[in-house]
């Protein structure tokens, strides 16, 4: 499995945890979701909704001048699991190259042991978030 170094570190950390701690540690990532940039607060239509998520969840992906990926998320405070997914992906993918992001398998979370901890419906949301990020990265890369 090919993962950017920061995401690989997150995956390894989770894999080493006892199953009963995984949900607790995952929810700690909700505090790591970066604050929404002002430009998206003023123009929310620039963000794409991930309709597979159970709560309103929006994202936008950009490439900086060096071609590195930066992801912006908007998710309500009362959706800790989705916010945790955003925090996890922000920590693991922000600053990666487009090629690194595109190489991440959609089921990367299986090595983390999350499939034994989180419902399949919520994991579909995580897969959908990653799919949107990858699609947006692909579009930005060819633009």
TrEMBL record:
<protein>
    <submittedName>
        <fullName>SufE family protein</fullName>
    </submittedName>
</protein>
<dbReference type="Pfam" id="PF02657">
    <property type="entry name" value="SufE"/>
</dbReference>
<comment type="similarity">
    <text>Belongs to the SufE family.</text>
</comment>
<dbReference type="InterPro" id="IPR003808">
    <property type="entry name" value="Fe-S_metab-assoc_dom"/>
</dbReference>
<feature type="domain" description="Fe-S metabolism associated">
    <location>
        <begin position="11"/>
        <end position="136"/>
    </location>
</feature>
């Amino acid at each position: 499995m090919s993962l950017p170094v920061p995401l690989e570190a997150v995956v390894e950390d989770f894999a080493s945890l006892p199953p009963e701690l995984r949900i607790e540690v995952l929810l700690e990532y909700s505090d790591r979701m970066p604050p929404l940039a002002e430009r998206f607060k003023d123009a929310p239509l620039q963000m794409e909704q991930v309709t597979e998520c159970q709560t309103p969840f929006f994202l936008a992906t950009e490439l900086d001048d060096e071609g590195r990926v930066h992801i912006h998320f908007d998710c309500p405070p009362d959706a800790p699991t989705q916010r945790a997914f955003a925090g996890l992906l922000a920590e693991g993918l922000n600053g990666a190259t487009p090629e690194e992001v595109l190489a991440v398998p959609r089921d990367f979370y299986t090595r983390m042991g999350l499939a034994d901890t989180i419902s399949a419906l919520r994991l579909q949301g995580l897969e959908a978030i990653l799919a949107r990020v990858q699609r947006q990265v692909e579009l930005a890369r060819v633009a």
